[in-house]
Amino acid sequence: VEVDEAFVGGAPKSLSGAYNPRGKGTGKPMIFVAASRDGQARARVVADDKRATLEPVLLEWIDPETTSLMTDGSKSYRGLGKTMADHQYVIHSQKEYANPETGAHVNTAD
């Protein structure tokens, strides 16, 4: 199962000299997404990306004893991965979007 977060609400409006942050600074709702590679997916609006927020939601959706988790390198996800049967991740800040050795990526969840 791949998990990731997204922010929804349309593109920032272009205003002369306006600062339009992306990601966590947008003020847009955060959506937590879990997607399996067979096409099933679930999503929920969450308050933040902290482990304490995400873990109860994820545990409603999956069985941690049998689930292989794939995420990006976020600290929240690393904590979640410790409770799963397996955890593979990619580190976007290092320009790693897929790992051919492990098969890890979060492109399905994106």
What would the keywords be for this entry?
110 residues, Nucleotidyltransferase, domain 5, Transposase, Tnp_ISXO2-like, alpha+beta, 29% strand, 7 strands, 3-stranded antiparallel β-sheet, two-stranded parallel sheet
Brief write-up:
With 110 residues, the chain is an alpha+beta fold. The chain has helices at 51-61, 75-81, and strands spanning 2-7, 30-35, 41-46, 68-72, 86-90, 98-99, 104-105.
Report on this model:
By secondary structure, this protein is of the alpha+beta class. It has a single domain (2-105), classed as 2-Layer Sandwich (Nucleotidyltransferase, domain 5), CATH 3.30.420. The protein has helices at 51-61, 75-81; strands spanning 2-7, 30-35, 41-46, 68-72, 86-90, 98-99, 104-105. Strands 1-2-3 form a three-stranded antiparallel beta sheet, with helices on one face. Strands 4-5 form a two-stranded parallel ribbon.
